[in-house]
Specification:
Structural class: alpha/beta
Number of helices: 3
Number of strands: 5
Order of helices and strands: EEEHEHEH
CATH architecture: 3-Layer(aba) Sandwich
Oligomer: single chain
């Protein structure tokens, strides 16, 4: 069974947010990132399903080259492979374009369970 867990890199929710110098938006220079809490649960569930039924778990994400720490954490939880679609402007994408990109890649991967 080919299981794919989609994960998103998000700012650490326990870190303090700071206003940007221009007063518009947040200063992201000091952000620490993590895998979304809900996506961590999805990875854990995918690994449990793999252990029960066999197969392979692939983690799929869109992000910048700097997101390797979060992907390594998913691999440490038991994912077998990772596919990262590199897009340095991933934070500027709207939900529709992100969903379309992920959908196309999932179709190519032949996922049995997402």
């Amino acid at each position: 069974m080919n299981i794919v867990a989609c994960v998103k890199r998000v700012p650490n929710t326990e870190a303090e947010a700071k206003l940007a110098a221009n007063g518009q938006g947040l200063d992201s220079s000091g952000y620490q990132y993590m895998v979304s809490f809900y996506d961590e649960i999805a990875v854990e569930q995918a690994v449990q399903t793999k252990e029960a039924l066999g197969g392979e778990v692939t983690v799929l994400s869109i992000g910048s080259k700097g997101g390797t720490k979060e992907i390594r954490e998913c691999m440490a939880k038991g994912a077998d492979k990772a596919v990262v679609l590199v897009d340095e402007n991933w934070q500027d994408r709207d939900c529709r374009s992100t969903a379309k990109t992920l959908s196309c890649k999932l179709g190519e991967m032949g996922a049995d369970l997402v």
